[in-house]
Amino acid sequence: MNILITGGTGFLGKRLALDWRSPHNTVTVLGRNQAIGKKLEAAGLRFVEADLRDAEAIAAVCKGQDCVFHCGALSSPWGKFRDFYNINVLGTRHLVQGCLIQKVSRLVHVSTSAVYFTYADQLQIPESLPLPKPVGFYAKTKQLAEQEIQTAHQQGLSVITIRPRGIFGPGDTTILPRLLRASDRPGIPLIRQGKAVIDMTYIDNVIHALRCCQLAPDSLSGRVYNISNGEPMALIRLLNLLAQQLGTTFNFKPMSFPLAYGLATIMEGAATLFSSPEPILTRYTVGLLTFSQTLAIAAAVNELGYQPQVTIEEGLKQFAHWWQGKDSDEVNP
To answer: If residue 295 lies in a helix (H) or strand (E), which one and from where to where?
Structure first.
């Protein structure tokens, strides 16, 4: 089988590419990180350095592919709208056009649970929930990217979308590392005593979900599926489990939501004024630490055959093992 993976030098894409590695498959990894690309080539994969914003290059790399996994995206709580739009929306448009031109059999799109986010508690969110006004440029452009995918479905492309929640595991540079750095200085904001109930998804479970999407019948084309570990837990419990696996204690900074939100607003304003990098605290991050958000995954279980393979606790153990340098291989964590 010929497999194309966008964002193939990123956290999820890299792991997915290695999972598909087989004498029976030709796996093409699309990305911009040459250093990781060379390591993937050494591991037996085909690396193509290309930009999702380049429509001609994307159409060319889609030629001859049986299945395309769209993992590439600009994923951050901070940045300029134009950057998010060019990669997340135009990049997705270029990819679906390439798939249609080259008659790709199946496109699997990785969206995000951020499209559901509001500054309120949300439990067991179904895929049928009307999407709210997006909070931040990332959520806005991922909502728009989903519209591009649905347009492609209407044009005859077989597509399935997943909305994973909080992907973590070895190689994660975003979610857990941000919390660990915050613990060092100035402390992890502990809002509402850390009682917000959250869903997380171990990376290998996301890969399992993506494989389920590849195998799904065409009758499921156009469908969207929530993906998580199905183990909702309070934020403070998750952090305590992580600290236990790391053999450490975390530095918390208890504060109210209004105070944290106000501080984040000031930090964002200063970062915008002085064109600084991502501030230590953003309003979106404060919201994630404050409000509960869990996903209903029954549709993925019943229709795709999705079953989480790795528990949260085992996943945290694997992350801690990698974080502490006991397995430092960047390509094959």
So the answer is: strand 293-295
Give the full edge-to-edge strand order of the sheet including 233-234.
Answer: 122-125, 293-295, 197-198, 233-234
Pairwise CA distance, residues 102 & 46, whole Å: 19
pTM value > 0.70: yes
Can you tell me the distance from the alpha carbon of 192 to that of 190, in angstroms, rounded to the nearest whole number? 7
Nearest to 142 by CA among 192, 204, 77, 200: 77
Q: Of 18, 13, 141, which Cα lies nearest the Cα of 88?
A: 141
CB 151 within 8 A of CB 96: yes
241-257: b (≥16 Cβ within 10 Å) or e: bbbebbeeebebeebeb
| Interatomic CA distance for residues 173 and 322, integer angstroms | 12
User: Could you give all domains of the chain from N- to C-terminal order, each with its CATH number?
Assistant: 2-168+199-228+294-309 (3.40.50.720)
CA dist 159 and 214 (Å) reads 9
Q: Are strands 159-164 and 197-198 parallel, antiparallel or unpaired?
A: unpaired
Q: How confident is the model at residue 190 (pLDDT cuts 50, 70, 90)?
A: very high
Residues 140-149 have a mean pLDDT of: 98
